[in-house]
Amino acid sequence: MKLEYLLFKVNNMEEIIQEILELVKKKMEEQGAYDREAYKQFVEETIDYFEEKGKLTDEDNLEFIEDQLLDMWEGVEEKFAS
After folding, report:
1. Is residue 1 over pLDDT 70?
2. Which of 15, 17, 78, 80 has the highest CB neighbour count under 10 A?
């Protein structure tokens, strides 16, 4: 049962990371802010928003989620460069 729960948490975290990433890219487009600093700011703001809405809690590894999103910068940068 614990393994199933852990797999659920991992899959759920992956979905949340993708959802945050899509919102961050949308914010970048809306605000015309395409540099790494803007990306980092939007990632932090969106994680905070997800916490406020209860989609993320203190039980979630917020630092890991943020790190994963920040590691995706190069792909995001390429998307906007083309």
Report:
1. no
2. 17
